[in-house]
Amino acid sequence: YTGKTGFELLSDQLKKLIVRHHHSVPVVVNDQVSVYDAITTMFLEDVGTLFVVNDHSLLVGVLSRKDLLRASMGNQDLSDVPVHIIMTRNPKIKVCEKDDLLLDAANKLIENQIDALPVVIEREDGLEVVGRLTKTNITKAFVELVKEDV
Ligand code: ADP
Predict the structure, then answer these.
(1) Looking at ligand 1, which residue's alpha carbon is closest to its atom 10?
(2) How is residue 48 annotated by DSSP?
(3) pLDDT of residue 150
(4) 3-state secondary structure 64-105
(5) Residue 40 lies in a domain
(6) Residue 112 Cα, ligand 1 centroid: separation in angstroms?
(7) Sign (positive/negative) of CA torsion 33, 38, 40, 46?
(8) What span is annotated as the signal peptide, if there is one (predicted)?
(9) The pLDDT value given to residue 6
(10) Is 42 within the bounds of a domain?
């Protein structure tokens, strides 16, 4: 018997959770697509966050539901506005990697008050998007932790 309290055991379990086992498939759009098309993609793919990539498939931005709502409030034709005009761009983008602790990624979501992080691989010329880590992924991991216990 380790003499650890239930809380310490739970905390040990939490620190074993790694991003690679919990993330979802990323949904990306090119930076030249219109706000209108991005809204369509968000509905069709049923996600709350889109990642924006350039022609080399490298991460250049993030689009949330509110970004798209905000853009819709103007009088412009949404088919004429490319998403790179309204997206959140570097250096503001928060990311995580497959080997990161789920706990560290969760902290990033909270500290930055955001719903999702792109899971990235660092390339010579930029970041390749390989996944999407959301609050839902973290909630699921939390629930699974209890299921394993019973
Ligand atoms: P919503 O806008 O639907 O509430 P978020 O809370 O995720 O969704 O987004 C809030 C703001 O933060 C938006 O402007 C969005 O572009 C930005 N944002 C979302 N995810 C990230 C991220 N991973 N890195 C940097 N900014 C982000």
Answers:
(1) 114
(2) S
(3) 54
(4) EHHHHHHHHCCCCCCCCCEHHHCCEECCCCCCECCCCEHHHH
(5) yes
(6) 8
(7) positive
(8) none
(9) 83
(10) yes
Spatial distance between the Cα atoms of 146 and 30, rounded to a whole number of angstroms: 39
Q: Give the number of domains in the chain.
A: 1
Q: Is residue 1 part of a domain?
A: no
Q: Is 114 in the pocket of ligand 1 (CB under 6 A)?
A: yes
CATH number (domain holding residue 134): 3.10.580.10
* Strand 49-53 relative to strand 28-30, pairing: parallel
Closest C-alpha residue for ligand 1 atom 19 = 114
pLDDT, averaged per 10 consecutive residues of the chain (150 residues), comes to 82 94 98 98 98 98 98 93 97 98 98 98 97 98 81
Q: Is residue 49 in contact with ligand 1, taking CB distance under 6 Å?
A: yes
ipTM > 0.90 for the complex: yes
Pocket lining: 50 vs ligand 1, CB cutoff 6 Å? no
Q: Can you give the residue range of the structural domain that contains 15?
A: 6-149
Return the residue matching tokens 């503001």. 92
116 lines ligand 1 (CB under 6 A): yes
For position 146, what pLDDT does the model report?
82
Q: Is 45 in the pocket of ligand 1 (CB under 6 A)?
A: no
CA of 52 to the centre of ligand 1 (A): 12
108 lines ligand 1 (CB under 6 A): no
- pLDDT value at position 44? 98
Q: What is the pTM of this model?
A: 0.94
